[in-house]
Write a structure and sequence with these properties.
By secondary structure, the protein is mostly beta strands. The chain is built from no helices and six strands. The structure holds zinc ion.
């Protein structure tokens, strides 16, 4: 039992690798759909949908965009998720919807 020291998370793919692609996409615990989990620029993690949608199809609170961080950051990836806010994307601009927007149990009405 190696539960000491808080080392309880799933094993990291490859420490010190600059390739942080997930081999197996994580699954949403609510609906079981594959999601992409990215760090945000404010130290939280967010589940995003696997696909991009035009901004007109995504309500403003769910719009995210993936941004490549210019500098090495404390987090082990150089891609961060940034909320699209304050900006007014064109209706056809691709944005990445938060998975919450399409999580089935949330919208589980027949
Ligand atoms: Zn879900």
């Amino acid at each position: 039992m190696a539960l000491a020291d808080g080392a309880t998370a799933a094993p990291r793919p490859q420490p010190d690798s600059d390739d942080v692609t997930w081999i197996e996409p994580p699954l949403c615990p609510e609906c079981g759909i594959s999601v992409r989990i990215y760090p945000t620029n404010y130290d939280r993690w967010v589940s995003l949908a696997m696909v991009e949608l035009p901004a007109k199809d995504v309500p403003e609170p769910f719009r995210w965009r993936l941004t490549r961080l210019p500098d090495p950051s404390p987090i082990s990836t150089d891609i961060a998720a940034v909320r699209v806010r304050g900006i007014d994307p064109l209706p056809g601009d691709p944005v990445v919807p938060a998975h919450r927007m399409m999580c089935v149990p949330e919208w589980g009405e027949p």
